[in-house]
C-alpha cells in the first residue's frame, strides 16, 4: 500500500485507464477511469434527464461507462485517483490534474490548502493560477510566492509553473470537505458559479472575487 493509492479495483467491474482515443493507457500514464463491465447496482439513468446521463457517462467511449476522474495505475498495480477530468488543466497542449500541482504546493509545508485553476492567458492561451491557504505562522509575501512557483516548476514541470499565486483564509468546500474548484475559478474570473447548494462555507467566495478586483 502506498500513500494516496489503492492496490486493486473492485472485482468484476473491468476498470481500465483509457486515453482520449479509447486505447488503453500504459502503466504510469494518466488517463480516464472507465468501467467496462458495469455492476448490477449502476444507475441506468438520471431521474427526468436520461439524455444528460447518457451524454455525461456513456458518450465519450461508446458502450463504456466513464467515471469522470483522471487516474494513474503504476507498474506495480497501485491506482491513484488524480481528480475530476472536467477539472483538467490543459497548458500548451499538456494535460494535468489540479491535485498534482496542489500536492506540490502543500508538500512544501508552507501551504495547508490549495486550488489550481486554469485562467485565460494572452501568451499561452491558458495559464495556471493557484489560490492557497498559508500554513500557520507563514507570511504570504512575494518571496514565498516565487518560491512556491519554482517548486511547482521543479516537482511537476516548467509548463505548469503558476502564473499567479494568491492567498485567502479558506477555500470553498463541500460538506464532505472537497475543494470546489469550479467555484474558485468562477469567483476568480468573475463568472457565474452556478449551483451553490452543496457549498458548506459560502463566505469564502467573496475574498476570491476580491482578488480579481485587486488586480484592476
Written account of the structure:
With 216 residues, the chain is of the alpha+beta class. The chain is 24% helix and 26% strand. The chain contains five helices and nine strands, in the order ββαββββαββαβαα. It has helices at 50-57, 98-106, 142-155, 181-189, 205-215; strands at residues 15-18, 30-35, 65-73, 79-84, 89-91, 94-96, 111-121, 125-134, 164-167. A four-stranded antiparallel β-sheet has the order 1-2-3-4. β3 (65-73) and β4 form a beta hairpin. It is globular, with a radius of gyration of 19 Å.
Write a brief caption for the model.
The chain is an alpha+beta fold and 216 residues long. It is built from five helices and nine strands, in the order ββαββββαββαβαα. The chain has helices spanning 50-57, 98-106, 142-155, 181-189, 205-215; strands at 15-18, 30-35, 65-73, 79-84, 89-91, 94-96, 111-121, 125-134, 164-167.
Quote the average pLDDT: 87
Strand order of the largest sheet: 1-2-3-4
* Terminus-to-terminus distance: 48 Å
| Helix percent band | 10-25%
The CATH topology of the largest domain: GMP Synthetase, Chain A, domain 3
What overall form do the CA principal axes indicate? globular
